[in-house]
Amino acid sequence: IISYLCIEIKRKENIMKRVYVDWETDGTPIEDIGLPTEVDVPNNIDTEDIEDWLSDKYGFLVNGFYFLCL
Predict the structure, then answer these.
(1) Which of 3, 49, 68, 70 is most buried, by the most CB atoms less than 10 A from its CB?
(2) 4/2 Cα distance (integer angstroms)
(3) Nearest Cα to 50, choosing from 31, 28, 66, 33?
């Protein structure tokens, strides 16, 4: 089961990035674990650090993610 999380990242330039995360949940739905469906990522988190930040904050590994600039 692939579980996705939509994250809105607010930057100083007011550019919003929507990030889709593939959580490593060993097949358990994110709803059963209680993972959030939306997270505000602090402005000081660089794009290359998002995966580590998410893992540290929520205690689950991230298989990968991608984002779209809006």
Answers:
(1) 3
(2) 7
(3) 66
